[in-house]
Design a protein that fits this description.
Number of domains: 1
CATH superfamily: Peptidase S8/S53 domain
CATH topology: Rossmann fold
Largest sheet: 9 strands, mixed
Helix content: 25-40%
Structural class: alpha/beta
Radius of gyration: 16 Å
Low-confidence stretches: none
Strand content: 15-25%
Oligomer: single chain
Number of helices: 5
CATH class: Alpha Beta
Order of helices and strands: EEEHEHEHEEEEHH
Mean pLDDT: 91
């Protein structure tokens, strides 16, 4: 099974040696237009390319799709994000990598509805659940999402699982470091929760490769059980 992953971010520079091409993509624009084509989802910030490279490293057989919602800055609107999730669902992705989120509680109803719609179509969202300072992020802290926290001591080829007290679902912890760049110290490279999410998306893709047709609830259960990425 080829796992299809939508990477909702700043796009991708597909020719980067750590990426070496993507299966397709789209730009979700503020004007309500969705533009498909390499020139439309090209990355101008570098963030989406680094996220894509981290996923590609661990899940080299996955089909990666760039969904650009960031342009000149790492910020976007709720309508744009919701349209990006909807595009991924309609395009029959298996996973959505959301190395982003919002802490605004007024956005929870709309994002919860988007998560439920994705889950009903068998699409699993991977997103940040909580920052190191305790900030609760959406949609990563919602039921049905693979919620991720950063663990700076976790090896990049592993993840760990935590079941918080009184929680119904586990939280997954992964390294906050991206794919290393030769000659660049890790502390000077991009790092943070974005890459913990990307690393966890790749682990989820590897699990899906061995369990085709698995929906979000079962996938979360599989990842929470003993599993060797």
């Amino acid at each position: 099974m080829t796992v299809r992953i939508a990477i909702i971010d700043s796009g991708v520079f597909a020719a980067h040696p750590h990426v070496q091409g993507v299966a397709g993509g789209v730009s979700i624009d503020e004007d309500g237009q969705d533009r498909e084509g390499p020139e439309d989802y090209v990355d101008r910030l570098g963030h989406g390319t680094a996220v894509t490279a981290a996923i590609k490293e661990k899940a080299p057989d996955a089909a990666l799709y760039a969904v650009r919602v960031f342009d000149r800055t790492l910020s976007t609107s709720l309508p744009r994000l919701l349209r990006a999730i909807d595009w991924a669902v309609r395009a029959e992705m298996h996973l959505i990598n959301l190395s982003l989120g919002t802490s605004r509680p007024e956005h929870e109803p709309a994002l919860s509805a988007a998560v439920q719609n994705a889950a009903a179509r068998g699409v699993t969202i991977v997103s940040a659940a909580q920052d190191e300072d305790g900030t609760r992020w959406l949609p990563g802290s919602l039921p049905g999402v693979i919620g991720v926290r950063v663990d700076w001591n976790c090896p990049r080829d592993q993840y760990r699982v935590e079941m918080p007290p009184a929680a119904d679902l586990p939280t997954f912890h992964a390294s906050g470091y991206p794919r290393p760049i030769p000659g660049v110290p890790p502390a000077r490279n991009l790092n943070g929760i974005s890459f913990a999410v990307a690393n966890m998306t790749a682990f989820a893709a590897r699990a899906l490769e061995t369990s085709p047709g698995t929906g979000p609830a079962v996938l979360i259960h599989l990842l929470a059980a003993p599993f060797t990425p």
